[in-house]
Amino acid sequence: MANSYYKALDAISVSEIQALGIPPAVAEKLHKDVADILTAVASPADTWAHISKRVLHPDLPFPFHQMMYYGCFKDFGPDPPAWLPDPDSARLTNVGQLLERRGKELLGSKYSDPITCFSDFQEFSVANPEVYWKTVLDELSISFSVPPECILRENPSYPGGQWFPGACVNPAKNCLGLSCKRALNDEVIKWRDEGNDDSPVSSMTLEELRKEIWLVAYALDTLGLDRGSSIAIDMPMNVKSVVIYLAIVLAGYVVVSIADSFAPSEISTRLKISAARAIFTQVVFSSSFYCFLAS
């Protein structure tokens, strides 16, 4: 264990910090800053959070970073955490916001905060799948055209069980419908195009997404295909493929998803198995996409 070779933070001296190539005056200040943190903070996680923000910076030699890290988690055990989420950032995550609102309802007296109780919540989700998944579906505002008979049905013929048996769901209806949690001007998709890492993040409101989807759905209607026909998508996972997927569903057809990494023979096999009547694809050097009818 690496931390067994390092002293606890309260046992580190100024001279030991200096020995890492840090000037005396800087070593004195670092030692004092660490001592102040140890006086004010109790847990290793909180101590490391304060040291990371107030003491460490890239100009300090890496051995000093190691001294602080392993000294902080000296008695933690064999696997000290390499990274700890910021509490404020954790509260802004989906699971953090859910636990902030319903943590006490779901976990009772065990609940304190999203980070501390994350493992408890994970255990709760495994032990109480009916309650957990109903909670998740409610959070996502997902409604079923035909509700499931139950969340999980154990069945020896289906290893791992049957999830949501008997359910029917319309993804287009769930993604495009208005609700108390979603208005037309809400951002519903955020993305950055591949290869444009320095460009700003793009976004699309629900109203904009609806217009894009309806445009494709109406175009599909002009093909004269029977409702329920299969239409394939062989494209990279980008915003256009999301629009096409939902448009196919909205127009009453069946989506056949094909990974854009597949070889031509594999694509052909999936088209034959699914009896796809049309396929959407994209030219790699162009942002345009195309729909081809099967012969």
Major sheet details: 4 strands, mixed
Biggest sheet: strands side by side, in what order? 6-5-7-8
Low-confidence stretches: none
CATH class of the domain at 177-293: Alpha Beta
Q: Remind me, CATH topology of the domain at 177-293?
A: Rossmann fold
Average predicted local confidence, pLDDT: 91
Shape label? elongated
Bin the helical content.
40-55%
Q: In angstroms, what is the radius of gyration? A: 27 Å
Structural class: alpha/beta
Tally of helical runs: 12
User: What is the string of SSEs from the N terminus onward?
Assistant: HHHHHHHHEEHEEHEHEHEE
Distance between the termini: 65 Å
Beta-strand percentage range: 5-15%
| Overall strand count | 8
CATH architecture of the domain at 177-293: 3-Layer(aba) Sandwich
Domain Acetyl-coenzyme A synthetase N-terminal: 120-175
Organism: Rhizophora mucronata (Asiatic mangrove)
Domain AMP-dependent synthetase/ligase: 202-282
Keywords: Membrane, Transmembrane, Transmembrane helix
